[in-house]
Every structure is written in structure tokens, then in C-alpha cells.
Amino acid sequence: MMEVVKAENLTKYYGNIRAVDSIHFQVFKGECFGLLGPNGAGKTTVVKMIYCFSPVSSGTLQVSGMNVMDSPVQIKKITGVVAQENNLDPDLNVHENMIVYAGYFNIPRKTAEVRARELLEFMDLSSKINTPVENLSGGMKRRLAVARSLINQPQLLILDEPTTGLDPHARHLVWEQLQKLKKDGLTIILTTHYLEEASVLCDRLIIMDQGIIIEEGAPRELILKHVGKEVVEIELAENLHDKSTSLVSEFQEHVSGYHLERGSLYLFTNKGQELISKLSHFNISTGYQLLRPATLEDVFLKLTGRKLKNES
Fold first, then answer.
1. What's this model's pTM, rounded to 2 decimal places?
2. I need a surface site. Which of 31, 35, 205, 227 has the fewest CB within 10 A?
3. What whole-number percentage of the chain has pLDDT above 90?
4. Cα 185 to Cα 28, 178, 311, distances in angstroms
5. Thinking of the domain 228-293, which architecture would CATH place it in?
């Protein structure tokens, strides 16, 4: 498989703070590659180095075989970027934002006009073509940012927290268009702290925490590896909080791991129904019991000992 991005011992310092700590990863042509983790994990720092916004402190980072420190201009020409912060020009309308941005890539005006209209239609913004940016909803602004990032027909699209702050409906609209781009073979790098977003869009991902990679793989493979197929959630009575270990020992043959957080016991299992049945034979005081499919949230919980907070 063709490597679009390759990082070896990639490290980034901000003063004495090591934001990214000697990480290795590869991104292959045509895949959606995710960087998953809480705010401050190093995700944005990594992508800023990929699109040559922030210099590498040590290690090597290549995009399409070019070193980011040696060929930033060439790399920027083949990269589309949707930054975490809104950087649309508020003084321009939708159409003007597209055309002005095309000028940064020296795209001829006629070509830019055609591409702009095609991309606005693709992102369902044709009816807003003359609307001032400040009058767009949050979801429309993010869709415009995606449309604008595609004006140079990039080989690599980088999306840094593309749906943060959006309501569920707007978030799903963005997902639908990104899935279409992926089907067309565009290579995508996505940073997110939304577990569902990573599961829906990513072929492979890395989980980062405190500047290091703690796991890598396909979402479903990581879930089966670390958690299993299902999770049983149990809200324990307060007097049982200190007895979770002894409780779990009663179900060892059905449980691959567990975690206790704020009075809720999470039992990781491949035998959910059998576990629920066995629990019913024990006199355990609970607020609720829930059997559900395992998710990436459970993987993160098991690996880090805490839930991934959505800060938006």
C-alpha cells in the first residue's frame, strides 16, 4: 500500500513541554486515518506538523515522500486543511470565500468559479452562495470550510475536530459528505474526541494520550481486542463500591475486564446474556443493569482508566 504520510520518532516540544513524544505511524492512500484522544493529547500538534504549520522538533515526517521540513510549499499544494478554529473570512460571502481561497493556489479564475460551484453543490450550500458568512449556521460554516479545503483538489485532506460544537443533525450531514469523499479515494486524516465519529469514518486510528500513542488499529479490531463484543453496565449501591473486585471475581469466566467509575461497574464480555443471567442469581443491590454493544469509548476507558470527555 502506498504511504501518504510516514512519521518516525516524531517529537514536538513547546519550550520544555514535550507535546508529542517520539511517535510512529503511517497513513496509506485512500484511507481515513483517525487521531483519537482528549484535548491536550497531541492530536492537533501532530496534524499541524503534517500540514507544515508547525516545525518538527525531532524525528522525521514525510508527506507523499517529501520531508515536511524540506518541502513545505510542495506539501501545502497537495493538502487540504479544515482547521479546528473557524478561519473563514467573515467579511466575505460564501462564494467570495471560495474564490479568494482559490487564489492562494494560483487557480485561474474560470477554473475556480467552476470548482466553487461544484463544491458548494456537493456540500449542499448552493442556495447560500451569496450569503455573508456571518449569517450561516455553525453547521453550514463547517461545511463551507470543508468545501473550501477541496478547491485545490488535494491528495490529502486534514480535518482537525471538524464537527466540534455542532448539533447531532449538523454533525451527521458533515459525516455523510466525508464518507462520499472517502469512497472516491481521497486520503483523509481526522482528529476527533467523538468516539462515534471515529467509528463511523475511520478505517484505522491511533489513540493518543499525553503525547504518546497508546494503541493503533481498526476501530472494530481494537474493540474486540481490548473489550470484547459487549459491555454490561451495573449501577452499584454505595455500600458495594469498595467490593467491585470481589464481585467481578464471581464472574471471571464471563468477564475479560472491568472498570468502576462513579458508582457504575463496567463488565467487558463476549457472553453478555450469560453474564446477565448469572447476575440475576446474586443478591446485588443495583440502580440499573444494561447490556449493550462494546464501543471505542470502552476501549479508551480500559486503556486510560477514564472516559473521553466531549468538550465542545
1. 0.89
2. 31
3. 71
4. 11, 11, 31
5. 2-Layer Sandwich (3.30)
